[in-house]
Task: structure prediction
Amino acid sequence: MPTAVTVTAVTAVTAVIEATPLGECLTPMVLSYLYFDGTTIYSTFKAFAAKLLDGSVVTWGDVDGGGDSSSVQAELKKGVDTIYSTGSAFAAKLLDGSVVTWGRAGMGGDSSSVQAALKKGVDNIYSTGSAFAAKLLDGSVRSEEHTSELQSL
Result:
């Protein structure tokens, strides 16, 4: 299952290069981004996203697996709180309570059907291997195809 880990600079670069054949694709630009202590690296099965200390995100790896974040790059330039992942997509919760997704559409990378609800007020994100669900501050839950109210136990 995809994971996240905060590591030191040298460990981060070494771990990325040794952990995947995609390490061959690391550009000097990505390596320079990863040279800062405290960078948090998240993964799908074939891509990586690094949350930098300034709250921005850089991605690399398989384009279909979340390595191409160009469609949401403007939102990822600052203010990213946390990143979540499925097998082939990422979701970034921003400090303003909004969420953006990218990666394979059928694996959570396309949140266009619920994007209006994800513009603000997201409390938490939950992920499976192939989908995301967002719990909003009002107690409702939004996912790509389903909307429901959480019931008190």
In short: Residues 16 and 79 are 24 Å apart (CA to CA). The helical segments are 9-19, 28-33. DSSP finds two helices and eleven strands in the chain.
